[in-house]
Amino acid sequence: MRATQGLWIDAERGATISPFAALDELSMGLLTGLDNLANDFAGRPTTPMPDLRALFRAVELALAHMEVAPSIALHLDELVNSIDTAATSSG
């Protein structure tokens, strides 16, 4: 929650990035991870968990070549850590 709020605050301050393929893939991976968690908690079937760390590394590499606030990568990393940790704990 804090990472999402941090991204929102950064965006309000003008720290934004344009969409790109690796970011889209990470976004979809994060959503899949959250869906899996919700399904697991509800006792419903889950799908294979995406490799969020690998998806983040692709985004991190792309961000390194852009002029963006470093906090964006930090917040995305925290989202990956949170979802991966929750998935490991629940599975």
List segments where confidence is low: pLDDT < 50 over at least 5 consecutive residues. none
* SSE pattern: HHHH
Shape: elongated
Characterize the largest beta sheet: strand count, sense, and whether it forms a barrel. Answer: none
Query: Beta-strand percentage?
Result: under 5%
**What is the residue-mean pLDDT, rounded to a whole number?**
92
SS-based class:
mainly alpha
The total count of helices amounts to 4
Give the proportion of residues in helices: over 70%
First CA to last CA: what distance?
Answer: 21 Å
> What Rg is obtained from the alpha carbons, in whole angstroms?
14 Å
User: Count the strands?
Assistant: 0
Structural notes for this entry:
This protein is mostly helical and 91 residues long. It is 73% helix and 0% strand. It contains four helices and no strands. Helix 1 packs antiparallel against helix 4 (70-90) and helix 3 (52-64) runs antiparallel to helix 4. The protein starts with a helix and ends with a helix. The mean pLDDT is 92.
Features:
single chain, about 90 residues, mainly alpha, 4 helices, about 0% strand
Compact summary:
This protein is mostly helical.
Describe the secondary structure blueprint for this structure.
Layout: H1 2-12, H2 21-41, H3 52-64, H4 70-90
